[in-house]
Amino acid sequence: MPLRPSRPDPEHVDTMWAIRKPRAAPGLALEEVPVPTPGVDEVLVRVEAASICGTDLHIFRWDDWARHRIKPPLTLGHEFAGTVVEVGRAVRHVATGDYVSAESHVTCGMCFHCRTGQAHMCEHTQILGVDRDGAFTEYVVVPESVVWQNDRTKLPPEIATLQEPFGNAVFATSTQDLPGRSVAVLGCGPVGLFSIAIARASGAGRVLASDRVAFRLRLAEQLGATVVDVSAQDDVAGWFRDLSEDDGIDVVFEMSGAAASIGDAFRIVRNGGHVVLFGIPARPVEIDVAESLIFKNLTVTAVSGRQVFATWYRTRWLLEHGVVDLRPLITHEHPLGDFEQAFAELESGEACKIVLYPGGAAEPVTALPAEEAQPSPRLARWAHR
Predict the structure, then answer these.
(1) Which phi-psi region, left, alpha or beta, contains residue 322 (left: φ > 0; alpha: ψ -120 to 50)?
(2) Active site residue 332
(3) pLDDT by residue (tens digit) across 53-85?
(4) CATH superfamily placement of domain 4-162+326-367
(5) What is the strand order of the sheet 365-367 is part of?
(6) Domain spanning 168-302: which CATH class is it, in words?
(7) Where are the domains of the chain?
(8) Rounded distance, CA 146 to CA 379, Å?
(9) Which of 15, 55, 301, 315 is catalytic?
């Protein structure tokens, strides 16, 4: 489809293109909407790159979680990088021309968790692209409090936009001592793959990984993991134990949320080992606490989101110094107007991270999921991280 150039100066334009959830129904639309005006403590960012997350796919499908959480109309997108073009009169630490990303969780700053250095647990969090308009657009407004400064000479936009999701893996892996340890990553979605890359870079003794999607398993192998296709293996736990000399795995990261995978995590971890739970199950999962946890003397850590902003500093160091290279995990790139194709690629399972560039936009268009998602029998305990 023909592209038109992005409008470079918000002072001389009134409207912009945005990927929107226009109504409470499956699908998304590319619409022309007014360029927002930043409030006194906010900044306006010209978006150079934005990446698609599983959250966006849930909103696209309009599944059980989305129906209970999202209030259309809404502009999607929470992973981005761009340049500040306007600041509110009370903004003190961000200037026009700054090259930035943003923490997607806009926290209250006043609750117990915020005031004790645990803002990632704030119960009053508003999320970009979920609770307020997001970054799948040409310009986005964000509070100064969530702005993260980038170095353009070290992080190009397609990498800078990945800091937000990569931070999930940084937070999860930072809870463990990985050098020399055997590590298993169950679930090779983007955060699972990020975790494999970090474990390898951290000096893990051996990294094993499981998934049921061949495309993801190939990426995991490229990152240095030994992999198993759970759909082709009758005894997944036995496979892991065979490769750990029957001692079990030192550290297991459960990244899928699948009930069978959660059960495997506790079966394959060694006595006295560590299980990190990150994947969110769609329904309650039954665990034999005595046999699977207590008698094995396990340490179980549940992790969500990023530590604001401690994780961002770790993330920046890993990426700026080339300790972890995320480029192999950017599998597709599109102009904003090709969002239909981008979401189709993500739904197919043949994609990892997809980056959108708002530098050009097509004519207005509406996209619908191939099939409406089947509602869960209960409201999924799923939330954006």
Answers:
(1) left
(2) no
(3) 999 999 999 999 999 999 999 999 999 999 999
(4) Medium-chain alcohol dehydrogenases, catalytic domain (3.90.180.10)
(5) 74-75, 15-21, 28-34, 365-367
(6) alpha beta
(7) 4-162+326-367, 168-302
(8) 30
(9) 55
Token pair recorded at residue 294 = 């207590």
- Measured CA to CA, the distance from residue 274 to residue 268 in angstroms comes to 11
305: alpha, beta or left? (left if phi > 0; alpha if psi -120 to 50):
left
122-126 long-range Cβ contacts below 8 angstroms, 24+ apart:
none
CA atoms of 101 and 150, how far apart (whole Å)? 7
Instruction: Say which of 12, 37, 58, 107 is annotated catalytic.
Output: 58
Could you give the CA distance from residue 350 to residue 69 in angstroms, rounded to a whole number?
Answer: 28
Angle at which helices 190-201 and 163-174 pack, to 10 degrees?
Answer: 60
Tokens 């040409």 found at: 138
Alpha-carbon span 263 to 260, nearest angstrom = 5
- Residue among 367, 379, 283 nearest 67 (CA): 379
Q: Which residues of the chain have pLDDT under 50?
A: 1-7, 361-362, 373-382
CA nearest 264: which of 236, 228, 302?
236
Each residue's pLDDT tens digit, 288-324 = 999 999 999 999 999 999 999 999 999 999 999 999 9
Collect all residues with Cβ–Cβ distance below 8 Å to 358 and sequence separation of at least 6: 6, 17, 47, 48, 50, 136, 137, 138, 335, 336
Structure tokens that stand for 228 in this block: 């198993």
- Annotated catalytic, 55? yes
**What DSSP assignment string belongs to 50-113?**
EE--HHHHHHHHT-HHHHHH--SSEE---EEEEEEEEE-TT--S--TT-EEEE-SEE--S-SHH
Q: Is 334 helix (H, G, I), strand (E, B) or coil?
A: strand
